[in-house]
Amino acid sequence: MGTMAANTFTSTSRAYLCHQYPSFPRTSTIRCSSHPTTTLAPEKFPAAEPSPVFHSVKSFAPATVANLGPGFDFLGCAVDTLGDTVTLSIDPSIPPGTITVSSITGDHPSAVSKLSRNPNFNCAGIAAAAAMRMLGVRSVGLSLHLHKGLPLGSGLGSSAASAAAAAVAVNALFGGGLSQSDLVLAGLESEKKVSGYHADNIAPSLMGGFVLIRSYRPLQLMHLEFPVDRELLFVLVSPEFEAPTKKMRAALPDLVKREDHVANSSQAAALVAAILQGNVRTLGSALSCDGIVEPKRAPLIPGMVDVKKAAVKGGAFGCTISGSGPTAVAVVDDEDKGKEIGERMVEAFLIGGRLNASAVVARLDRVGARVISCNAD
């Protein structure tokens, strides 16, 4: 953990770092009226460049479950325990106004070996550079270290977690001048280069909880509050199998029948209502009823059909593919029951798909991306 010098600890940075569970109404809307450009002319920079508040900042961003069944590309949530970490430092050896990815480590060596250290092709680097442009940082250079806690192509928002952690770190390093909507837009700069322009991972990773994307042009986000007095757990079972987002999106139909659209719309509406009511049983049931995306993707993930059956038979309220997969997500309201169901799902992946898998029972992350330490020296 870093140290915080009293003479550099401004009221803005204090509010940023002391990030408690947000006090939202049942829904709160964030409107993002513009998109950050890939390049920004000097005259477009803010008139006053912010000064660094710290020498280095360490941030964490949680994993996410996107789509949640029928909420394809417009609904997602953050889950605790899993995520990526970024350490960002001022580095005099780096050209002013630029950023370098100095090193990458991780819990999954195969993932680390595939990641580029070129900031123009690294999720964290792209989002960090976008945040720097939005702040107008041009007189100091930054060095970024990324620790991947998430595997690639897992369906848990790996790219979004890296982008969210990086954007938050840049913002905190310079005093927290960017709004939450600005940070989402910075993260989307990364997402659109990696997996397409969709916010159902980056928004909940940054904001925490459940987030509904009401509109993309302009981007308009709605934070949905799940009641704090209700228990909600996600059984996340990840097989040793990579499902690239671009490949899984290519499997989707170009046209959807009217009756399928109506059926999915009603289930998505029920899902949103269940979130606001804290009705875990209905939430799980609606999550299980995607009739458009899941039927096309499930056959591409060995054993997924069997895994869903095992989860529901074991007592889960519902089960579907997390994001584009291959992780399967089941919904329960009891941790011990979740562990039992996770074991059944792991077994189903092995028997039905001949894939080794691991299970984690996670809660809803209500905070989102946050600073976890800082250093003023």
Automatic annotation (TrEMBL):
Keyword list, A-Z: Amino-acid biosynthesis, ATP-binding, Kinase, Nucleotide-binding, Threonine biosynthesis, Transferase
Domain GHMP kinase C-terminal: 272-348
Single GO term (MF): ATP binding
GO terms, biological process: threonine biosynthetic process
Domain spans labelled GHMP kinase N-terminal: 128-209
Catalytic activity line of the entry: L-homoserine + ATP = O-phospho-L-homoserine + ADP + H(+)
Recorded metabolic or biological pathway in which this protein acts: Amino-acid biosynthesis; L-threonine biosynthesis; L-threonine from L-aspartate: step 4/5
Protein EC: 2.7.1.39
Short name of one Pfam family: GHMP_kinases_C
PANTHER family per record: HOMOSERINE KINASE, HOMOSERINE/4-DIPHOSPHOCYTIDYL-2-C-METHYL-D-ERYTHRITOL KINASE
Protein family per UniProt: Belongs to the GHMP kinase family. Homoserine kinase subfamily.
Protein name: Homoserine kinase
Organism: Dendrobium nobile
